[in-house]
Amino acid sequence: MTRVSTNVRRGLIVAAIACVIVAVVDLTLHPLYARGIGQRWISHANGLSTMLSLPGLLLVVLPGLRQGQHTSTWVWLVMQALNFAVYTAAVAMMLAACQALGRAVRRNRKRDIAAATPQGREPQLSRRRLLLGGVGGLATGAIAVYPMSIATRHFEITRRTFGVRNLPPQLSGLRIVQLSDIHHGPWIPIQHVRTIIATANGLNPDVILLTGDYVHRSAAYITPVVNELARLRATIGIIGVLGNHDWWEDGPLIQREFARAGIPLIDNARRFVTPQRQLVEHATVGLCLAGVGDLYTDTQRYDAALADVPPAMPRLLLSHNPDVAEDPALTVHGYRVDLMLSGHTHGGQIYIPGIGSPIVPSQFGEKYARGLVQGPVCPVFISRGLGHTVLPVRIGVRPEMAVIELATA
């Protein structure tokens, strides 16, 4: 009984420490972060707070107490109460299990020692065993930190060449850089966004295509991220579409900010790259760059994006959500699309060899998780994205900046 009460007390202590960390981060550091103060370092604390809050978050999301992406004050308090209870019970049960295992191990060791040494004395802890224990502890800490603090920022530049039928010879070799799912917010600081922008500019792109989800969890991040996107440079031009998180935070505001930055949004619209390598609103020859609204939060007007384009003109379609590729409104009407560029799935964020990605935000499972996939109408390239949502981790799925070069097929 005494041992049980001791385990509960220790569980209460651990639960209290976890809840204090969450409270300090959420109530003190996060507001500073939202004002642009100390984002490089506080982003890691925000990620830790999210992971510590996960038990309570799941318990309020499953019954529908938390709606959308934002947490009200009373729901946050309920989450912390649930976290406290879960951590207390989990630690107490874990300690009890460890104690039971330890007793069994000690009994076995005593038998072994008695059989091996006449005195039955247990050998002292060796320096080697102590060193191995320390190395094991450091390795465990590194394994825990890597998915949150390193893997989420270590993006990969991928390169592909794609043949396009009827592409004018003057546009052969056109270099496109796709940026998707930047998700500037509590886990992606503005300093990392600047690294993304500088890297994209260093690739000397002809066209930069932005495929949505620029922010995460607050409209306060809209103006700062668009200010950084305004620093992008491409020899021909930059265009984009919005994603579900952009609309969840403040779609009209982000539309105004893109207009202020001079970056056209082509949700249910289009632009053209002429053989003279100019980005224009109307053309009869060249390359059509079309876009549709987000599948979850907007409308998809394929007629506005693709109708009346000259039949021989090649066209790329920007859609934040790759599930648009299966939309009957697209597949039935027979619109020509040579390549669709999407994001949204983040590649699943977590990939387990032999199992795959446990969660992919697509109605079609892992088909549209990542990479180049053949859809009913056209090939679809799904970027793994540069940020992350739901959990501040990436395991086995590196963030991606895609470089696509077009060639005449």
- Major beta-sheet overview: 7 strands, mixed
CATH C-level of the largest domain: Alpha Beta
Give unreliable regions as ranges: 137-142
Number of helices: 10
Alpha carbon gyration radius: 26 Å
CATH architecture of the largest domain: 4-Layer Sandwich
Distance between the termini: 77 Å
Strand order of the largest sheet: 6-5-7-8-9-11-10
Class inferred from helices and paired strands: alpha/beta
Question: What is the total tally of β strands?
Answer: 12
Mean pLDDT: 91
Strand content: 5-15%
CATH topology of the largest domain: Purple Acid Phosphatase, chain A, domain 2
Net shape: elongated
Helix content: 40-55%
Count of the separate structural domains:
2
What's the SSE pattern?
HHHHHEEHEHEHEEEHEHEEEE
List keywords for this structure.
409 residues; alpha/beta; Purple Acid Phosphatase, chain A, domain 2; 2 domains; seven-stranded mixed β-sheet; five-stranded mixed β-sheet; 12 strands
What do you see in this structure?
- The protein is α/β, with parallel strands linked by helices.
- It folds into 2 domains: 2-89 and 117-123, no CATH class; 157-408, 4-Layer Sandwich (Purple Acid Phosphatase, chain A, domain 2), CATH 3.60.21.
- Helices cover 42% and strands 15% of the residues.
- It has a 7-stranded mixed sheet with strand order 6-5-7-8-9-11-10.
- Helix 1 (2-34) crosses helix 4 (73-116) and helix 7 (222-229) packs across helix 8.
- The chain is elongated, with a radius of gyration of 26 Å.
- Mean pLDDT is 91; it is low at 137-142.
